[in-house]
Amino acid sequence: MKLLKELCAVRATSGDEGPMKEFLLHYIETHQHTWKNQPVIHHGDEFQDCIMLVFGKPRVAIYAHMDSIGFTVRYGRQLVKIGGPRTISGYRLVGSDSKGEVECLLEVEEDGEINYIYHREIETGTPLSFKPDFRETATQVQCCYMDNRLGVYAALKVAETLEDGIIAFSSWEEHGGGSVGYLADYMYRKYQVRQALISDITWVTEGVKAGKGVAISIRDSGIPRRAFVNKIRNIAEESTVPFQLEVEGSGGSDGTDLQKSMLPIDWCFIGAPEKNVHTPEETVHKKDIQSMIDLYGVLMKSL
Q1: CA-CA to 299 of 20 to 30 Å: which in 28, 164, 194, 217?
Q2: Is the predicted pLDDT of residue 293 greater than 90, yes or no?
Q3: Which fold has domain 70-130?
Q4: CATH H-level, domain 2-68+135-302: superfamily
């Protein structure tokens, strides 16, 4: 879990994915020689802070968003949410401005306004994120930003043996999305890829339990094409990988942006469930992490 711990420690709130991009590029460049196949690496101005890895002759793309929820310093001691973080007084937040490193406390007023407590004013516009405290037991891992550093981690593990496929590390998902449109367009035009798997993290609910396998989402706020979901279900059932089926009426992912695009892209969300969503205490069972990696490996060969 060393890599996952390192990923969780990188500060990369929506709109500020540059540090994660640099971390991933360094990791890929120093580890790809150990992978079964070496990918073509696409990045640069036309991809903004996103990265695309292309292996062999791709038929399917994995999308894993790099960004996290957090806060932006407004004026005085006010904070504005990035995405949908839980706000409880006492949460520790970290960041940096021109005066140096920052570690402050979140404070929620009676009227619901959110502020920070610190010995000085933090510069306006500074992004703040939860302070990581990575904990691991025999059965689970816990830290802030399992959503979606675990999705990135799973994609990197799949990359180790991937023969044909694309892995796209996307931006802005937690605060409205926007990058997968041009990533999908590039894949569609250059590689004719029309199938997408969303490597993201979902919720433990009354129907999706921790330790029972990765969740295949039949729907959330978006509804993927039933024929594609059924195809994935059939492949999963024929494998030995444990999985669960998820049905929700809310929530979204990079798949939601794909569905709203003008491209004929089939997509399906497949991810491990977590407890304590969007808090510093996000918790995932190790069995679900392994089944997520295993199922992606099966699907990238079979779709």
Answers
A1: 28
A2: yes
A3: Elongation Factor Tu (Ef-tu); domain 3 (2.40.30)
A4: Zn peptidases (3.40.630.10)
Give the model confidence (pLDDT) of 242-282 as tens digits.
999 999 999 899 999 999 999 999 999 999 999 999 999 99
Cis before 230? omega within 30: no
**E-state strands within 148-271:** 165-170, 195-199, 202-203, 214-219, 243-247, 266-271
Number of H helices, E strands in the chain: 7, 19
Q: How far apart are CA 145 and CA 20, in angstroms?
A: 13
Tokens of 89: 């007084």
| Confidence at residue 109, expressed as pLDDT on a 0 to 100 scale | 94
**CA–CA separation, 43 and 146 (whole Å):** 24
pLDDT in tens, 63-74: 999 999 999 999
CA angle in degrees (0–180, nearest 5) for 107-109-111: 150
CB 147 within 8 Å of CB 26: no
Nearest to 72 by CA among 118, 26, 126, 112: 126
